[in-house]
From TrEMBL:
Gene name in the database record: ffh
Any coiled-coil regions, as ranges: none
Role played: Involved in targeting and insertion of nascent membrane proteins into the cytoplasmic membrane. Binds to the hydrophobic signal sequence of the ribosome-nascent chain (RNC) as it emerges from the ribosomes. The SRP-RNC complex is then targeted to the cytoplasmic membrane where it interacts with the SRP receptor FtsY.
Region spans: Disordered: 435-516
First-level EC class: hydrolase
Protein name: Signal recognition particle protein
Recorded family membership: Belongs to the GTP-binding SRP family. SRP54 subfamily.
This protein's domain notes: Composed of three domains: the N-terminal N domain, which is responsible for interactions with the ribosome, the central G domain, which binds GTP, and the C-terminal M domain, which binds the RNA and the signal sequence of the RNC.
EC number: 3.6.5.4
Gene3D superfamilies documented for this protein: P-loop containing nucleotide triphosphate hydrolases (3.40.50.300), Signal recognition particle SRP54, nucleotide-binding domain (1.20.120.140), Signal recognition particle, SRP54 subunit, M-domain (1.10.260.30)
Compartments where found: Cytoplasm
């Protein structure tokens, strides 16, 4: 969505890195480029003017003139202002003191309200709530049936007493749904209303009547992020006709310029609460202004990536896999398939890589990634026997031909997978062994010390008597423990030539450590 804007801003900031201090001319040139980038992204003109004025004012202040790295300070200023335009802080849902909490969805025709109702219901169910979806869109053909399908997919109940397709009173349905929610002990009610145009006074009045009948705790304006500056006009019309408390952006995964996200909040003064980034019910989450600003400036979105991983990966499986890797045990194709399936659950690979900092410079390579390649790899591994997955070394030519036929791929694809797996397995063994780095577990430092000890051998004393005693001890291949009552043990009771015991010394009374 924000690729064009992100690329333009990144190029603007890269030209500042070589400058040790910013002059007024540099600031003017930078803000001019920022203005052009925002206008090309379909951001509304009043928003662009306010944004550029704030950046220019702060860039000429003391925080930049006294900075060691002015370019980084300008990036920070732009990031702060983007966060401010997008809403500042994450806006959470307001819940009613006495259930049920009523949420009313309103928006244009085709903005994705019905699909969004299913996504919001599933998101709330995962938060521990028991939502009820209400089919109050009785104008659009098959809108009721679509909401019922969404309810089945999201495992959420749907209240649909009227068939729709122009039949029934949506205001009465919305009013009765509150009593139904109380009877069935649903703590949240999501009312899906009919889509309307900003100039459609009759449908706008109907939305206002539904609002007056149910007194919703939250009215959410659902806006298509791909409609550009028209979103501002539509939002203003809804604000005047119905009013709303928050904005939900849909189709953020599209290829439009995304100016609506930067415009609606500033024009209406209402925060963006949720964002929909795909067609699946899982492609939905709360909107975080700071994270969106980081993604626009190509600084990544690590927090969202971590949250997705925590929701997807099973903690016990992750701990088991981590233990296997650190202990140096064999990493099998079965383990590889399990990890790959977990990564796929997090979403498209392109989206995951896009959350990493600096990935905007590799956008062409990321866009060339096809998730179907992972499906082909999974098909190859599933076509193997359990023994082949545990020990790929047994996969000979005939086995590879069988696997290729079973997975619908070629023998060369099987060869490539097996070869790359062996390389990855070697790397993981090296990582488990510390990769030969001193100080790492299993690394070079410990082995070097033990080898030095082995090479050092027995040290010879400078005292001739002690040296002779040491040689005699080393000459005996199988030294025995000193006999009880014989302290000279392996010397056979004899002393080397030239060695004499002190006068009055009784060897039988000598006790070594460990003797009684």
């Amino acid at each position: 969505m924000f690729e064009t804007l992100s690329d333009r801003l990144t190029s603007v900031f890269s030209s500042l890195r070589s400058k040790g201090r910013l002059s007024d001319a540099d600031i003017d040139a930078t803000t001019r480029e920022i203005r052009i980038a925002l206008l090309e992204a379909d951001v509304a003109l009043p928003v662009v003017k306010a944004f550029v004025a704030r950046v220019k004012e702060r860039a000429r202040g003391a925080e930049v003139s006294q900075a060691l790295n002015p370019a980084q300070q300008v990036v920070k200023i732009v990031n702060d202002e983007l966060i401010e335009i997008l809403g500042g802080e994450t806006r959470r849902l307001r819940y009613a003191k006495t259930p049920p909490t009523v949420i009313m969805l309103a928006g244009l025709q085709g903005s994705g309200k019905t699909t969004l109702a299913g996504k919001l219901a599933k998101w709330l169910r995962e938060q521990g709530h028991v939502p009820l979806m209400v089919a109050a869109d009785l104008q659009r053909p098959n809108a009721v049936q679509q909401l019922q399908v969404m309810g089945e997919r999201a495992q959420v109940a749907v209240y649909a007493p009227e068939p729709g397709n122009g039949v029934g009173d949506p205001v009465d349905v919305a009013r009765r749904s509150i009593d139904e929610a109380r009877r069935q002990q649903h703590d949240i009610v999501i009312i899906d209303t009919a889509g309307r145009l900003g100039i459609d006074q009759e449908l706008m009045r109907q939305a206002a009547d539904i609002r007056d009948a149910v007194q919703p705790d939250e009215i959410m304006f659902v806006v298509d992020a791909m409609i550009g500056q028209d979103a501002v006009t539509t939002a203003q019309a809804f604000m005047d006709g119905v009013g709303f408390d928050g904005v939900v952006l849909t189709k953020l995964d599209g290829d439009a310029r995304g100016g609506a996200a930067l415009s609606v909040r500033h024009i209406t003064g209402r925060p963006i609460m949720f964002a929909s980034t795909g067609e699946k019910l899982e492609d939905f989450d709360a909107f975080h202004p700071d994270r969106m600003a980081s993604r626009i400036l190509d600084m990544g979105d690590i927090l969202t990536l971590i949250e997705q991983a925590q929701k997807t990966f099973d903690e016990e499986q992750a701990a088991k896999m981590a233990g296997k890797l650190t202990s140096g045990e064999n990493f099998t194709l079965e383990d590889f398939l399990e990890q790959m399936m977990m990564v796929q659950k997090m979403g498209p690979i392109k989206n995951l890589l896009g959350m990493m900092p600096g990935m905007g410079q590799m956008r062409d390579q990321i866009n060339s990634i096809d998730d179907r390649d992972l499906d082909r790899i999974a098909a190859i591994i599933r076509s193997m026997t359990p023994a082949e997955r545990q020990d790929p070394k047994i996969i000979n030519g005939s086995r590879r031909a069988r696997i290729a036929n079973g997975s619908g791929t070629t023998v060369s694809a099987v060869n490539n997978l097996v070869t790359r797996f062996f390389e990855a397995q070697k790397m993981m063994k090296r990582m488990a062994g510390g990769m030969g780095i001193p100080g790492m577990p299993g690394g070079k430092g410990k082995a070097a010390k033990s080898s030095k000890k082995a090479k050092k051998g027995r040290r010879v004393s400078g005292d001739p008597r002690k040296a002779a005693l040491g040689k005699a001890t080393a000459a005996d291949e199988a030294p025995a423990a000193p006999k009880k009552g014989g302290a000279l043990g392996n010397l056979g009771g004899k002393l080397p030539p030239g060695v004499e015991l002190p006068p009055g010394f009784d060897p039988s009374k000598l006790r070594l450590p460990g003797q009684k």
